[in-house]
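Section 3.1: Structural characterization of target chains.
Under the original work plan, the team committed to producing a structural model for every single-chain target entering the pipeline before any wet-lab resources were allocated. The record below documents one such target. The sequence was received from the expression subgroup and is listed exactly as submitted; it comprises 225 residues.
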Amino acid sequence: MTETPSHAARYTTVDGEHRHELEVKRSRFITVLRRVETEGDARDLVAGLRREFHDARHHCSAFVLGPDRTIQRSSDDGEPAGTAGIPMLEALLKRETHDGAADLSDVVAVVVRYFGGVLLGAGGLVRAYSESVSSALDTARLVRRQRLRILGVATEHAVAPRLENDLRSAGVVVLGTDYGARSATLRIAVEDSDAEAAALEGRLASLSAGSARADALGTSWVDVP
């Protein structure tokens, strides 16, 4: 099956799992954020928290998946319709991360609620669930993801170590070198743009007196500082 190319070149997610608790009029709202890659991963977290907090009244959830955020789901889990899942989802979607961008994805939020005996009303529930996710994001560590173009540079065994060192010194990301029977191939990662690929070709031409060129090997999503 061919993967649909992403329009996004970068996005933000959370680092691992993070928990945060908020109390509103004696009701406890325990928010769990987790980095996930599939709907199955997200639903596994919900199921696990149902077992962990088996005596809680509600386990509401929302998740966003994919670099383009094409998969979006939410659940009120027994709360009045539209008062929990949707506000949680909107808190994820509207979260500004880097340079004012709202690009949070590959994340699931589950809010476990222990009822405190005081009815919050529809408006109060919306605010409480939205604030629970927002407050958890305030204290969570975020990770930047970027799509990189992977290129292979074939060269002689004897030349590979020097070329790799020269490329690293020039600030090029070298993922490693694969040694075959007759030649070596350096695997290089650059920003997924024609301009960056052309700049690399220029560096290679300069460092190898025009003997080395890069061949496209595909793209890969990686965590970046």
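The mean pLDDT is 92.
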